[in-house]
Amino acid sequence: MVILITGASSGIGRKLVLYYLDRGHTVAAVARRKEKLAELYLEAPTQLGKLKIYPADVTNKRQIAEVITEIEKDLGAIDLVIANAGIVHQQLTANLDLEAFDRLMQTNVMGVFNTIVPAIEVMMQRGCGQIAAISSLAAFHPIPRIGTYCASKAALNYQLTGLYWTLKPYGIDVTTICPGFITTEMTVGQQVPKNWCLEIDGAVAKIARAIAQKRRLYCFPFWQQQLNDILGILPDAIKGFVFNVLIEKAFPRPNFFNA
Ligand SMILES: NC(=O)c1ccc[n+]([C@@H]2O[C@H](COP(=O)([O-])OP(=O)(O)OC[C@H]3O[C@@H](n4cnc5c(N)ncnc54)[C@H](OP(=O)(O)O)[C@@H]3O)[C@@H](O)[C@H]2O)c1
């Protein structure tokens, strides 16, 4: 298979690149940091012909469309796109940071669609292909401090679910992956307590399995999904206590200045 993975310079994306290369697939790796992408060549020396890096910004619609054309020319028809690039923002002041909101929507929502729409166009001509996107369990509840991130992932889930049904008759599968916390630059940067985080190799294996099974929606780990479900049915008075007391206790406010 020829697989395009965005956000390939670190975390989940980087591990997915190595996972698929190990299994003999051809991978196009996309992210902004060229030097981090180039490290992949050193990490997978035996699969050199199977890997090509494409430094690009997913928020730049024209640039990412050109990358897709280039990949099809360099590596052949893209079978699978994994739109994984994403960012997070913790709102530590009471009022909404509009610039952060714009950045998150541009990256986590438009960045995914800037990537998948041109890929879907070529897949529709061929009548086959698969789109997968890494969303988050955060898509299911607006949680204080990361409400902006939740909003971006909720928008992503809605649009992808619509696409799942729309593209089925065209032979294109759409898979939405919603992980809980995983140890990556993202969670380390946000100072998420380690005991909430899954280790990355196991998480990537689960993601790859759900993609291979062409699942419509895959949420994990089970216990974090269950917590989410419980949160959903709590009356507001109890929810307020959970948000204002329990979550503040479980996730102490990061001090980015001392990080
Ligand atoms: N870690 C978790 O607990 C967790 C949980 C649920 C969902 N997720 C989701 O999983 C995805 C990957 O996150 P991660 O944990 O692996 O974080 P990470 O280590 O910070 O990786 C994020 C990746 O996205 C890329 N990226 C960000 N903005 C980009 C842009 N404008 N254009 C191109 N690439 C861009 C970054 O590369 P450059 O900076 O080089 O561009 C990087 O490779 C995200 O969508 C995240 O929301 C993560």
Describe the protein.
This protein has 259 residues and is an alpha/beta fold. The protein has a single domain, classed as NAD(P)-binding Rossmann-like Domain (Rossmann fold, 3-Layer(aba) Sandwich). It is built from 9 helices and 7 strands. It has helices at 11-22, 34-43, 61-75, 98-126, 147-167, 185-189, 200-212, 222-233, 236-250, and strands at 2-6, 26-31, 51-55, 80-83, 129-134, 172-179, 217-220. A 7-stranded parallel beta sheet has the order 3-2-1-4-5-6-7, sandwiched between helices. The longest helix has 29 residues, at 98-126. The radius of gyration is 18 Å and the shape is globular. The mean pLDDT is 94. It binds NADP nicotinamide-adenine-dinucleotide phosphate. The site of NADP nicotinamide-adenine-dinucleotide phosphate has 30 residues, from helix 1, helix 4 and helix 6. NADP nicotinamide-adenine-dinucleotide phosphate binds at residues 6-13, 31-33, 36, 57-59, 84-87, 107, 111, 134, 136, 179, 181-182, 184-187.
Topology diagram in text:
Blueprint (H helix, E strand, L loop, with lengths): L1 E5 L4 H12 L3 E6 L2 H10 L7 E5 L5 H15 L4 E4 L14 H29 L2 E6 L12 H21 L4 E8 L5 H5 L10 H13 L4 E4 L1 H12 L2 H15 L9
Parallel strand pairs: 1-2, 1-4, 2-3, 4-5, 5-6, 6-7
The chain binds NADP nicotinamide-adenine-dinucleotide phosphate (NAP).
The site of NADP nicotinamide-adenine-dinucleotide phosphate (NAP) has 30 residues, from helix 1, helix 4 and helix 6.
